Amino acid sequence: MSATVNKLVYGDLTFTDDEIQDGEVYDAVALLSDALEIGTINVGLYIRDEETGAALTAFRRNEKLLYYYRDKLRGTYYIESIQRTGKYTYEISANNAVALLEQSNHLGGIYTGQTVAEVVSDIVSGTGVTVEIKTIFQGHKLYGWLPIATARDNLPQVLFAIRAY
Prior knowledge:
Number of helices: 5
Helix content: 10-25%
Structural class: alpha+beta
């Protein structure tokens, strides 16, 4: 018996190489770090168990999907859609956390010395995304204006202001 190379975990369901027919992972980083790219995963599954199929099609948008490669977590994604494409086949499409930032608006504002920790916390609040700010950047004070925009658009502005990525 060979070792499992690819594994997907969705709630209580686990899919391995036996069920995964094909798939594609897309991750990108903007060269100038001026934008946050949305990473995606698209996977085709072959599922003969009707209960598992029913659980798949009863998905809720933005539920977590974990992708492991050789038992190492390679990505946490949030489900965009699951479609039944045949009697036993299903397609899962999911995005990384940047898509959650895209779905949320940030009201912007004028900043007069608020810390990076405060502003970033404000930008990501309500998105479901957790961020970790290195200690060296947390206390930096920010001055200036952020427009009303998506959290995905405003977060890179803060990163640019503190020369981070």
